[in-house]
Amino acid sequence: MNTLFEAKNIHLVGIKGVAMASLAQCLDDIGITLTGSDVKEDFVTKEVLSQRGIVISTGFAPGNVPTSCDLLVYTGAHQGKQNAEVQEAIRRGIRVMSHAEALGELMRGKKGISVCGTGGKSTTSAMLAWTLDSAGMRPSFSVGVGKVNNFGVSGRYTQIHSQETDEISKSGWFVAEADEYAVDPTEDHRPRFIYQLPGIIVCTNLNYDHPDIYPTFEMMKETFLAFFNTLEDGELLVLNGDCEALLSLIPKIKKGVHVVTVGKNKNCTMQVDSIKLSLQVPGNHNRQNALFAYAVGKALQIDSEKILQALASYTGTMRRFEPKGKINGISYYDDYAHTPDEITATIQALREREPGKKTVVAFQPHTYSRTKALFDGFVASLSLADEVFILDIFASARESEDLSVSSQMLVEAIGEKAKLVPTIEDLRIVFQTVTAECVCITMGAGDIYKVYEHMQVDK
């Protein structure tokens, strides 16, 4: 078997993760038989996976790999290639590949649009897929969220039948998130987007992140530049024109690549303020995300009015400024924001959506390495809120505990407006005692969203 498309039975290790679940939906659309395995806990992908009826084993054990399996796909989490199920597949001579490689193969034969950047990838990808779909282009897509509201799924593979021959064509577009994190943090530190060979790249921004993989910001910038330079002559690169790090890379981009910059900067190719957007999702960052989608839509010769109508009807995704309901008239929201810039943008959006309200932010730091490397940024961004509750650090399986950094240190650095609430249960109790003038939002890349599971919110 040379390609993913030749597989008949694929086993997905870590299937509940947002990226893997999105891939699973695409593979199911192709008609491949799927099985999976993961930890016991429910994830935001529970709904979309349940709808597919995929058999999912709890835990990771060699016996979970079906005898019929002819390809196993693993995630960078759960020990990566060293996972017991991956090792069992290798022992049995079954082909194995990382999620990053599988997504890259899935994009082959289609015209790829890769959305990269440290923040905004999911929303921009979802907006772009919806824009193309609204224009009748029926794109395939893979977005790393629980669900894109407009589609009801987070992944789709479109097989287009030719009206003349009734054969399936591989033409059409594929919109995918392009992740800069490691293919397999246990042994392969190359960026996940290395497997994507798109004709269009969108980069939403570039800030320092993933210190466990990139010791310096310069290394991170060089990695993005190398990805940009995979584009061929005449292909399109859409960049955030307000991001200094991205602007500094433009002179190093291959001469034949068509570069479009989007932002408020007066030198940008496309000005954010020059296009009249009407959006259902708040915040300056979402207006810019929408402009990235607009720029690609125009490059694909979609009528401007159709693009604007699509963006106006875009209703968001799970865990991206997601309304969770109300208790006694107090609104609750949830967002995936887990870096200082994302937190800042989300607080600004919250104030825009709920003007005059006291902003109450509950934040769950994600990984010791990120919390330590970006500590000052977290203090500055969280200090923008009126009141802050901080949970214990959500540790990743890929790193050991680091006692040199803690949530308590963040609380002390922020000052009187911040309090430590170590667990989700502690936060649930606190959330149900906030006063009427407040609006509340949870933020973080861990499991903080589970606080709403046992709260009696009015939808």
List keywords for this structure.
8-stranded mixed sheet; 30% helix; 21% strand; single chain; 459 residues; globular; 23 strands; alpha/beta; 6-stranded mixed sheet
Report low-confidence residues grouped into runs of 5 or more.
Answer: 165-170
Shape: globular
- Nearest-integer average pLDDT: 94
Strand order of the largest sheet: 8-7-11-6-14-15-16-17
Structural category is: alpha/beta
Q: Tell me the total number of β-strands.
A: 23
Number of helices: 14
Oligomerization: single chain
Separation, N- and C-terminal Cα atoms: 48 Å
| CA gyration radius, whole angstroms | 22 Å
The biggest sheet amounts to:
8 strands, mixed
Q: Helix content range of the residues, please?
A: 25-40%
Question: What percent strand?
Answer: 15-25%
